[in-house]
Amino acid sequence: MPKSPNDKLQGTLTLLVLKTLNTRGPLHGYGLCEHIRSVSDELLQVEEGSLYPALHRMEQDHWISSKWEITNKGRQAKFYSITAKGKKQLAEENESWARLTRGVMRVLTYS
Amino acid sequence: MFWKKRRSPEDLREEIASHLAHQADDIRDRGKCPDPQAAARRAFGNITALEEASYEHRHWMWLDHLRLDFRQAVRQLKKRPGFSVMVVLILALGVGANSAIFSVIRAVLLRSLPYKDSGRLAMVFTDDPARELHEGRTSLLNFADWKNQNRSFEDMTVFTPQTFLLGTEGSPERMRSARVPANFWPVLGVRPILGRVFTSDEEKRGERLVVLSYGLWQRQFAGLREAIGANLVMDGRNYRVIGVMPPEFRFPFTDTRVWEPITAHPYWATRDVNAPRSNAGWLVLGRLKPGVSWTQAREDLNAITSRLKDEYPANELPEHAIIVPLKLVSTGQYQLSLWLLFGSVVVMLLIGCVNVAGLLLARGIAREREFALREALGAKRTRIVAQLVTETLVLASCGGLLALLLAAGITQAIKVYGPADIPRLSETQIDWQVVLFTTGVTICTALFASLWPVFYSTRRQLGSRHFTSGSTHRTRNFLVIGQFALALLLTTTAGLLIHSFLRLRATELGFRPDHLLVMRIDLHVGKTIEQQASYFERAIERAESLPGVRSAAAISGFLRTDPEDSVEIEGHSLQHPGPCEDLITGHYFQTAGVPLLRGRTFSSHDRRGSLPVALVNEAMVRAYWPNEDPIGKRFRFKASDPWLTVVGVAGNMRRQGIERPIAPQVFLPHRQGEDNMMDVIVRTTGNPAKVTALVRGAIQTLDKTVAKFKVSTVDEELAQQTSQRRFDTFLVGSFAFAALFLSAIGIYGISHQLVVQRTKEIAVRMALGARPKAVQVLVLRQGLALALFGALLGLTAALFVARFVSKLLFEVAPGDPIALGGSVLLLLAIAGIACWMPSVRAARIDPMRVLRHE
User: Are residues B180 and B274 both part of a single domain?
Assistant: First the structure.
């Protein structure tokens, strides 16, 4: 199975997607990109090239589910929503992310 | 992960389209953009890459690649049928021979014996170097002390092989039996398949019970359950059958037919129960306690043995005890030769590997451009390597399948023509373990053979045209040298064995084996001494009266005789061991073709009551009366025997086995001794096989109670003795021949390739004035130099290996110059022949044509 070169960022992307879907409810791919970009004050730019494979992987892992629906602009779009399993995963990733940043911060602020 | 939810490429494409549409909508909403769709696509990035990534994510890519590689491989191999067939045949030959020998080794050496926890079973022998006694037997009294005093064995049991005459009416048949105690069965850990074995109470009472071998049960009772409780007549006594052993139980001998309690045999009361401590007629088997090593057990028993020797000085007890694991007892003597065979096939396989590697290398060079092109089109190096390995594996699996067929054929031939005395050889079969072994060897061989060419092939760059670079040359030279070194190793080993075999064939037997029949005649136990002697005299007379028979005689053992324990030459003290002793009757020396050197032979006057006389052989004279006239000298075997007077000297006869030195031998007249089992020998005028039936019939009608016997020619009996050596020599010789053939192909292929690739260079040389002869010599010299270097390297290895096989040699030194020199010359000759064709081709190159093509 070919692996993306940077697993660390992949993991972050998973966290961002799960978090977004959890707070915002069902969203399509483009919506996800836009949301993450705007909420992060354009600091985080999600690459489409990695977003879709990530979404598919998460769907295969049953963290999210998908459905074709019509947007309020009248276009077809695939909407993703978080599952119960995904919520559990989100809690875990949240925790590990918090631990990581806490650790990194401690090291950085150590004088 | 194909079992997870599939996502079709269309779905992804639609999703991307939807994404782009949304993005375009947004761009349009912000305005100012003339082409929002194009802008959206620009922002999105590489759609194809995303689709490809998604495809790879969804599929087991390596499976996909494998399928493609496989198809490609088959296509490639079909394109070069000659190359493919060659590789498949070489692999089949090498792997097939390996599988066959492996299956033999597994059946004979590797499989554990059919007893419970057989690794802890061992025979305990006595060892007395002073009397040249090795693996000697023990007395019952000594055994009892071993059994009671040792701390190393869980239990020990004792037994003795015996023979008996089976049957009541007509000619009985002599068969092997074993007298065993009740604990014989639990020590071995075996159970009967039918009925039971006897108990120690029954053993104590000496009940006449018998346990049958599977074979005798089938033959005598047609495998019926009613055999239990039936009657079996052995030596004219009635025994009750109580059990049947499984077919694989064949202890102590493969042809042991029955087991009876030690105490049931009449010998128990007459000989054994009060036998002195020196009466060593018993074999001892023990089961080692867990955790006790062989060394510990040996020290333990040695201590007891030497204590007993000190305790009973008058009995001349043996000095040491030796412990031999049961497995080694039966297969020990075959181990070296079987492993030698295995080594030979491994060497042969390696030579085959080198050949295949050479072929693949040549093929790789020929396909350099193809690989370079593939790489330029974006194929990863790993993919090219995988493709090459797949090709080799496809070839190897064809070779492996063929190898299995070949192995089945070879093992069948070995079972039919191999020596009959190798235990469990007949149980050789191609089972799943052999198949597993073959698969493993095939894959290893394929990887080994393809390893080098693969790495070589993928190092090339597109556009580089140094076809005959230094590194290619070096590798190929290395392959050829290695191949010749291995071939020489095998040829010298075969040479040593062949030379040994020829020496053995040329051994002076001392008698004329041609036109000679031999049969072992066994008189019923109920005859008096005089009846026995007169029976043999009548049998000889009867045989001599037949047409086609020149003369006949009888001897205690014609091709089997063992030294007596001691001899006392008048005027000297008792010596160990003594000469061999045999009774003879009839015109023995004339029939056997042995010259009488001095004195006289026996006459009808040499009978009981007259002066005890003896004939001796030359070896006896040389050993005991050197530079003296032996006629009239006296000797005896034991102090209790009467003195024997030497009346004649006969020539030496090699009767103890062709490979053994001639021992001193003594012949006594049958009328002055006692023997109810003798070999009758018959010298015929014509082909001895033609009068076999006639002789048998004539002797059988003489006395219907005489046991059934087999008539064979002495030539057959002698061939039996050399069968193991013939087997080894033939197989190693065949493998060496195959190795030479493979090496010849190898060096031919490589020098041919060399000439093809150097065509331009040779053409330039010729254009500049080199003569064809010189070019031919150049090519030949190159090939021969490699062969010579390989041969010298192999010679060093061969000298080292020869020391290991020296035990298998007969009157040939491991450094035998004939075998070694002959092998080197043979190898060089083969290299010369193999390089001749390419050299002629090189000499015929037309520089004009070649250079014009440039």
Answer: yes
| Distance separating alpha carbons of residues B244 and B230, to the nearest angstrom | 12
* Dihedral angle of Cα B255, B261, B264, B268, to the nearest 10 degrees: 90
Decide if B21 and A75 are in contact by the 8 Å CB cutoff: yes
For residues B244 and B250, the answer to whether their CB atoms sit within 8 Å is no
Q: How far is residue B546's CA from residue B688's CA, in Å, rounded to a whole number?
A: 13
Same domain as B153, residue B16: no
Q: Which residue has the tokens 């015996």?
A: B162
Chain A residues within 8 angstroms (CB to CB) of chain B:
1-2, 28-31, 34, 47-49, 52-53, 56-57, 59-60, 71, 73, 75-78
Domain count, chain A: 1
Q: Which pLDDT value is given to residue B829?
A: 93
**Which value does ipTM take for this structure?**
0.80
Q: Determine, yes or no, domain membership for B23.
A: yes
Report how far residue B556's alpha carbon sits from residue B533's, in angstroms, rounded to the nearest whole number: 12
Model pLDDT, residue A11: 66
Q: Are residues B288 and B169 in the same domain?
A: yes
Q: Are strands B237-244 and B194-195 parallel, antiparallel or unpaired?
A: antiparallel
Indicate if B141 and B212 belong to the same structural domain.
Answer: yes
Q: How far is B12 from chain A (nearest CA, A)?
A: 9
Please check whether residues B16 and B164 belong to one and the same domain. no
State residue B174 phi and psi, 5-degree precision. -85, 135
Measured between CB atoms, which of A1, A48, A57 is closest to B19?
A: A48
Closest listed residue to residue B801, CA positions, set B344, B382, B314, B131: B344
Q: In this structure, is residue B74 part of a structural domain?
A: no
What is the SS3 assignment for A70? Answer: strand
Residues B556-573 have a mean pLDDT of: 88
Structural domain includes residue A84: yes
Mean pLDDT of B495-512: 90
Cross-strand pairs, B244: B194, B212
Is the pLDDT confidence value at B5 over 70? no
Residues B249 and B122 in one domain: yes
CATH number at residue A35: 1.10.10.10
Which range of residues forms the domain containing residue B28?
9-59
Token pair of B793 as six digits = 């390297």
pLDDT digits (tens, 9 = 90+) for B445-474: 887 777 666 566 555 544 444 444 556 667
Runs of H (alpha helix) within B251-380: 266-267, 294-311, 326-366, 368-376
Burial of B394 per CB tally in 10 Å (0-12, 13-18, 19+): buried
Two structure tokens written together for A37: 């970009």
Burial of B753 (0-12, 13-18, 19+ CB in 10 A): buried
Tell me, yes or no, whether B54 and B135 share the same domain: no
Burial class (CB within 10 angstroms; exposed 0-12, middle 13-18, buried 19+) of B823: buried
In which band, very low, low, confident or very high, does the pLDDT at B262 lie, cut at 50, 70 and 90? Answer: very high
Angle ∠(B359,B362,B367) on CA atoms, nearest 5: 125
Minimum CA–CA partner of B43 in chain A: A48
CB contact (8 A) between residue A29 and residue B45: no
- Structure confidence by residue, pLDDT tens digits, A73-99: 788 888 999 999 999 999 998 898 889
Residues B28 and B146 in one domain: no
Count CA atoms within 13 Å of residue B681 on its CB side.
Answer: 27
Are B140 and B676 spatial neighbours (Cβ–Cβ below 8 Å)?
no
B37 neighbourhood in chain A, CB within 8 Å: none
